[in-house]
User: Which sequence fits this backbone?
């Protein structure tokens, strides 16, 4: 009898999928593409990118050997990516309405550090500990709103849900719950729930190749490409 194995996906494969989804979404937005293909690429496929990235930011936080360095690296790439984000999607050097998505992830990582600090305080009563953690989430959600990071408080709450449900299995379960806050505003990101499907098959392995810095660099580089290619194609 032939032994059948269930399909599985590595972290690298899932991150590449997120890169493709994000690229499709940003091409539609940066080049002002219209029609049904644009809807499918941006509002359906493109919506799975953010939950996947949030999932792996949460994974990375609990597996990294240096959380401070992890946060610093994210902040550095967020700063590097801000102008490419403004140019690629909004065709301007300065765009105050929304900061790039890496700032959202950086703020979520800072929240994770604060939550982990509270959790280490074993002398706190469990009720007090949970009150402090929920207050932290509320404060960071307000900060996300007024700092105008991408996805605002919805993105921050998405990351908080993934943090608190990190031990739930299969991996699709916390992702489905995390997508609820992304849809608090008029159910505006229904396609995000589709991220649970590929993450259901996540096997917990990184993959053979070390692509960490590729995924960091991809964010600003693909935005620069969209801006330059758009200037050529749409002129």
Assistant:
């Amino acid at each position: 009898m032939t032994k059948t194995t269930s399909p599985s996906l590595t972290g690298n494969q899932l991150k590449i999928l997120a890169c493709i989804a994000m690229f499709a979404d940003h091409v539609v937005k940066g080049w002002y593409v219209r029609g049904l293909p644009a809807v499918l690429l941006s509002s359906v496929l493109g919506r799975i990118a953010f939950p996947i990235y949030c999932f792996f930011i949460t994974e990375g936080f609990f597996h990294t050997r240096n959380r401070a360095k992890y946060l610093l690296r994210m902040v550095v790439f967020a700063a590097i990516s801000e102008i490419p984000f403004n140019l690629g999607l909004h065709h301007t050097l300065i765009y105050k309405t929304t900061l790039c998505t890496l700032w959202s992830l950086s703020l979520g990582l800072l929240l994770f550090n604060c939550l982990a600090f509270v959790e280490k305080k074993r002398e706190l009563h469990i009720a007090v500990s949970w009150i402090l953690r929920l207050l932290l989430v509320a404060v960071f959600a307000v900060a996300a709103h007024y700092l105008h990071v991408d996805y605002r408080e919805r993105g921050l709450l998405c990351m908080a849900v993934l943090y608190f449900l990190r031990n739930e299995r299969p991996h699709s379960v916390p992702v489905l719950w995390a997508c609820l806050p992304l849809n608090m505003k008029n159910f505006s990101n229904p396609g995000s729930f589709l991220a649970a499907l590929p993450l259901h098959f996540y096997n917990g392995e990184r993959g053979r190749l070390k692509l960490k810095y590729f995924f960091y660099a991809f964010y600003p580089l693909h935005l620069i490409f969209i801006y330059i290619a758009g200037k050529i194609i749409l002129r």
About this structure: Residues 11-39+46-197+227-233 form one domain. The longest helix spans residues 67-90. The chain has one domain: 11-39+46-197+227-233. Residues 31 and 231 are 9 Å apart (CA to CA).
